[in-house]
Description:
This protein has helices at about 1-10, 110-120, 160-165, 180-185, 190-195, and strands at about 15-20, 35-40, 50-55, 65, 90-100, 110, 130-135, 155, 170-175, 200-205, 215-220, 230-235. The protein is of the alpha/beta class. Strand 11 and strand 12 form a beta hairpin.
Amino acid sequence: MNDASTLAETLRKFRAVDLSQALEEHMPNYPTHSKFYHNLWGSYWHGDRALTYQLVLNEHNGTHVDAPAHFISDAKPQAHVTIEQVPLGRLMGRGARLDCRRFHEGDYVPRSFITQWEAEHGAIRGGDIVLFDFGWAAHWGLRPHNQRYLADWPGVGMDAAEYLIEKPVAALGVDTLSPDPPEALRTKPIHPVVLEKQVLIVENLCNLDQLPDFFLFLALPLKIRGGSGSPVRAVALV
C-alpha cells in the first residue's frame, strides 16, 4: 500500500499532456479505411432515461496503434500478434520527442538525424517510445478541411527505422497519417519491417510540441480480440 501511495503521489506532481486527436465524424482517415460514426441511440431528449450513442469505427481511426498483425500475416505465426496479445508495457515507458519540423512534404528522417539528436540530447534506449514531431497535426481538420493533412506528409526513412529496431525501441509514433509517406506506402514502407520486429506504430498524435526531450508515455489500446490495431488515448506525463 505504501508503494502504491508513493507512486500515486509522484504521478500527481506531473503535468498530463493529451497527445490524442478527438474522435469525431469527418476527421481525416486513410482513404481505404472505413470512417468513424457517432450515432444517437437513446436520449432523455426523446424520453429515454439516459443518453447513449453507438460508435461505428475502424480500428485505425484517429490516434491509434498498429499491432504487428496489421501488416504481418499468419504465415509468420510468431510475428502475427493481434492487439489483445500485445503486452501493455509496450505502450508504457520513457518517451523521446524528436523535433522533425525541418522535414517537409515527402521528406524522410534519416538515421543520421537520430544519431545527431542523440549526441545533443541523450541516447535513445531499448524500450523507449520514440515520437517524431513533424508539426503535421497543425493540418488536422474536418472535411472538407482535411485534404492538407492527407497530402504527401513527411515520414521515417528505412535506415532510421532499422536503427531504432536495433536498439530495440518498444514503439515509434508520428503526428501524421503514417510514418510512411505516400510514396513509401506505394513502394517500400517501413510498416512491415518495424511491425515484424514487434515495434509498435502509433499514428495521428498531436501536441508533440509541448513535450520535452524525454517524458513518461502512456497509451492503452482497446482489448479487441483478433484486432489489427486500436484507437488509444495517448498521454505524456512531463
